């Protein structure tokens, strides 16, 4: 089965996800993985500024408040922005697995519209691991952790090495990131694997 047709359900032989022994404790605010990230970076004026926390097991909770810059229709969040919020929350599972992985496939259900000013309460969980493939699902609820479901996603992330970024990123941003001590710290956290 090639990419694009890949099922988003872990296959029968998939391993259960294991929380890395040095993963941040449940409740810990994770902080941005890159200052210029559209999802979590503080240096992006119109970014999502999504704040993710470690959950129990291999799970993440996150919050994102829809800004006027995120509109698709008048007063409503753009679907692609909501997919970005799900993608970012799912990507934050990397911190708990201590594995670098990028989104291979992301399928989103838009269940109800999300108004500007609403806070999306997101939760992501790793469902299984099969070789380099990490299966994960997420849900986003309106205004409260137990609020009405607005969006859901299922995804496959693919494990990569750090050189995925250095080989493929535009050289000027790569150079700047490698000169930034905070960025080096993030990269180091992922270099140590059991
Ligand atoms: C500093 C820290 C920062 C931490 C950085 C954290 C960033 C988080 C940001 C949020 C997340 C993002 O948006 S990440 C950005 C969006 N995503 C991307 O840009 C990814 C672009 N795609 C790629 O670079 C590539 O296609 C890869 C790396 C995904 C796969 O290429 P590859 O490495 O050559 O892998 P390949 O051998 O083909 O496949 C390996 C296995 O994965 C499966 N596979 C491959 N592609 C897919 C796919 N699209 N959907 C499903 N499954 C797939 C294959 O079937 C195979 O399964 P089997 O045969 O083994 O069974």
Automatic annotation (TrEMBL):
InterPro entries: HotDog_dom_sf, THEM4/THEM5_acyl-CoA_thioest, Thioestr_dom. Its main location: membrane. It catalyses: (5Z,8Z,11Z,14Z)-eicosatetraenoyl-CoA + H2O = (5Z,8Z,11Z,14Z)-eicosatetraenoate + CoA + H(+); octanoyl-CoA + H2O = octanoate + CoA + H(+); dodecanoyl-CoA + H2O = dodecanoate + CoA + H(+); (9Z)-octadecenoyl-CoA + H2O = (9Z)-octadecenoate + CoA + H(+). It is found in: Cell projection, Ruffle membrane; Cytoplasm; Membrane. Residues 1-27 are annotated as: Disordered. It is a peripheral membrane protein. Residues 75-134 form the Thioesterase domain. CDD domains: PaaI_thioesterase. Its EC number is 3.1.2.2. Signal peptide: none annotated. Transmembrane segments: none annotated. Keywords: Apoptosis, Cell membrane, Cell projection, Cytoplasm, Fatty acid metabolism, Hydrolase, Lipid metabolism, Membrane, Transit peptide. Belongs to the THEM4/THEM5 thioesterase family. PANTHER family: ACYL-COENZYME A THIOESTERASE THEM4. This is Acyl-coenzyme A thioesterase THEM4. It comes from Streptomyces humicola.
């Amino acid at each position: 089965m090639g990419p694009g047709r890949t099922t988003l359900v872990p296959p029968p032989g998939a391993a259960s996800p294991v929380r890395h022994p040095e993963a941040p404790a449940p409740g810990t605010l994770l902080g941005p993985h890159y200052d210029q990230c559209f999802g979590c970076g503080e240096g992006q004026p119109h970014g999502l500024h999504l704040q993710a926390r470690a959950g129990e097991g291999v799970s993440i909770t996150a919050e994102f408040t829809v800004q006027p810059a995120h509109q698709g229709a008048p007063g409503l969040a753009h679907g692609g922005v909501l997919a970005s919020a799900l993608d970012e929350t799912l990507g934050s599972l990397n911190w708990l697995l201590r594995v670098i992985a990028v989104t291979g496939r992301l399928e989103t259900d838009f269940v109800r519209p999300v108004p500007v000013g609403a806070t999306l309460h997101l939760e992501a969980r790793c469902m299984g691991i099969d070789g380099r493939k990490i299966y994960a699902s997420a849900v986003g609820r309106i205004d409260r952790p137990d609020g009405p479901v607005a969006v859901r996603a299922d995804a496959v992330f693919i494990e990569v090495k750090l050189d995925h970024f250095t080989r493929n990123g535009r050289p000027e941003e790569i150079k700047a990131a490698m000169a930034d001590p905070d960025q080096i710290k993030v990269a180091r956290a992922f270099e140590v694997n059991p």
